[in-house]
User: Fold this.
Amino acid sequence: MSKLGTEESNTIAAAEALQPTLRERANEIEQARRLPADLSKQFAAAGFYRMCVPKVYGGLELAPAASMQTIEALARADGSAAWCVFIGATSGSALAALPEAAAREVFATPETLLCGVFAPHGEATRVDGGFRVTGRWPWGSGTQNADWILGGCRLFSDGEPLLLPNGTPRSHMMLAPASDVEILDTWYVSGLNGSGSTDFAMHDVFIPESRAVGFSRVRRPEGPLYAFPNFGLLAMGIAAVSLGLARAAIDELVRIAGEKVRQGTSRSLARRPAAQADTAEAWALLRSGRAFFYDAIAEAWENATTTGEIKIERRRDLRLATTHAVRSSARAVDLMYELGGGTSVFRTSVLQRIFRDVHVTTQHMMVSHSTLELTGRLLLGVETDTSML
Assistant:
């Protein structure tokens, strides 16, 4: 892994410094079903939300490895908090696809937070100067603290869908001020409770053309970060959260293993051969998944730095490494949860919260089994659609 610069090291150090606070407030975050506003402000002040914002607009424009390590460090303390950061950070990359005047209007201060959903669950009807947007989006992580909210939309004009040259429906993300968005109370879930990933809606909201992300086909900033596809950055954030959760589960099991003695035996959990083997396997799963993940990021970054683009082979490996990291992390957490025995089933158990959190990350479509099919087709030389890679 390449040596990190000062700004990159600063965000990782800031995340590590916040770990004690996040551990202390983990129950509060979970019970609130959202990230408390004061913590979100601390994250903004630390620069977490501008890690992917272009430098020209006041962002940090960090190398992806640094952003992912920052998110991973937060997830070692609390998965929901890390999830909100990854959504805010990756959403900030959308500013690179806006006209300059619009980007500067949106990112008015370094503490500005963008959140939203890329999937086109809304409809945007073409009108003079922009679009009228109506829709409802699930998975609105962190939107309760956002200044601006993105919603993916299918585009229509005179009642007919606008199409791409290949005949598929055209869609773009529409960026609205939070005051124009209705936040709905739908987030009652098994894990990542504190992420506030609730539904949100827009009702006939006017969005000027300049805030239809990518519609004006502006030239993206020169930096290699923006050679990474939006969907790729999104998936990478899920993996970073999962890796942090896996490390937290191993740390917690190690903490309790020396004192936990199961009924019918005088040996501590740490002295049982099965526990020793499972802990070793979990560590290997974490370290191998993490190594592939950051190795693929480094190769893609080098490709983007030297050519301004990321070859399909590098994008393939990046997506495969991302999904693999999530699946390996979940397996490592499962091993630690099972070793915890009865301790793991209580709501007060750190292992239980991690178990629930990681099994929400695995359900995200960006790291679903279909991503293995996609990357497998490419490895086998089978023709396939790579627009979502």
